[in-house]
Amino acid sequence: MSASIRRAARQRREFLHKKEASRMAEAGSHDRELLKRSIEKGTKVATEIRGKYDNLKRSLDAEDEKTEGGVQAIDDEYGEVGLADPRVCVTTSREPSSRLKQFSKELALIIPNASKINRGGYRIDELVQSAKESDFTDVVMVQETRGEPDGLVISHLPHGPTAFFSLTGTVLRHDIEGVGSMSEVYPHLILEGFTTTLGKRVGNILKALLPVPKHDSKRVVTFRNDDDFISFRHHMYSKSGIDKVTLSEVGPRFEMRLYKVRLGTIDMKDAEDEYVLRPYQNTSKKRKAL
What we know:
Elements: H1 3-25, H2 29-41, H3 53-61, E1 88-92, H4 98-110, E2 114-116, H5 124-133, E3 138-145, E4 148-156, E5 162-171, E6 188-192, H6 197-207, E7 219-226, E8 229-239, E9 245-249, E10 253-262, E11 273-276
Parallel strand pairs: 1-2, 1-3, 6-7
Antiparallel strand pairs: 3-4, 4-5, 5-10, 7-8, 8-9, 8-10, 10-11
Helix pairs in contact: 2-3
Region (Disordered): 1-33
Organism: Triparma columacea
Domain Brix: 86-267
């Protein structure tokens, strides 16, 4: 077994141990919340937690943004996002059609520092291992059915998570009438409608693909959630006058629907599923996941 494989296995064990410790600590989060409310309101400490006061107070004093509530956030995988620019590997399913190849090229143009990799005969585990060794932060894989892009997988490296989306209504750049020219500057990002815990989780997954703009940019990437369907749009804008802004769509455009979040990379078939869209949920009009 090579040193890189042993290192990856050790890091994975450490990562799973940290998550298990977070789950065990979650049992005491209710007590900490009670104590926190008592301190903020200046009321008496609840009877059931008086015997645990000293330990709970030390836990509250040690909290920070990542461990708020006494439990390490599940999004700790993205704790370092923004400190360095992401490097994204964009690839396809095997034997891609010309339309899927074009779509993957356009995705690689949207994401700064992205590299389009020809899948060839690589197995998924070989692809992920190669991406890790090349210091990629994410793998984006697009899939198709009969020449039409219908799937998008985003896998964060080195430990996950992996989000699976279905795609509909895909329109490529050259299919948009009067499409404008596209700059390659770092874009501004708009995330709208991601209000639930899962929605914020998905927002973090999408946000981690794009670096923070370092210069004035007139390029905007938008992910807008509406009834659990995420609309992707890509625009350039220009200002004419003081209060007039002109938008020019530069494509591509498509709709996304989340159907699974897995706590692991795309090659980990036995990893735990954090969220799965169940068939009966499609009939629940009032329940919104995102």
